[in-house]
Amino acid sequence: MKIICIGRNYVDHIDELGNEIPKDPVVFLKPDTAILPKKMPFFIPEYSDNLQYEVELIVKINRVGKYIDKKFAHKYYDEIGLGIDFTARDLQQKLKEKGLPWEKAKAFDGSAVVGKFFHKSKFNDISNIEFSLEKNGEVVQKGNSSLMINSIDELISHVSEFFTLKIGDLIFTGTPSGVSKVVENDELRGVVQGEEAFKVRIK
Fold it and tell me: Closest Cα partner for 81 from 45, 104, 115?
């Protein structure tokens, strides 16, 4: 199982970080060791003083596919969930300045929160899914799949050009604006269409 992450897929998030809108989706990977075990707290790594949350819709792949046409992409997933791509922003910035890969800042142990999955039949429209992240009871991120630069089906098609998709693979589809630092004892809660998908404590 592999975790495929998409960067810069919401214009408002691109703007808040001062990045440029990419011509093609920005893709990076996390290993399976990045998944935070269920009911475990997230421990801020000692090498970051600016650890930030990024809430994202997640698609779980249900069949093997390569070079998937966009019009058939909907057949490759039945479930959509919510999670967090934790990012050591200070370390990421240093790596970007040197033109180096982001994995140390993005793919470390526990950096991927994977919450509850919902069958896609729960949603009236896949291209209009509302989701949010609460920090200590206050909404800090709000997103909607309608605001994605590249839709779920477009992402599946694009990613499958480079990587064979297998059953159980996860695609993190990008984060909206509102990313910010976490500190010890923060509590993060993810919500999809009004239903809780995860809750995680910061240590």
Answer: 115
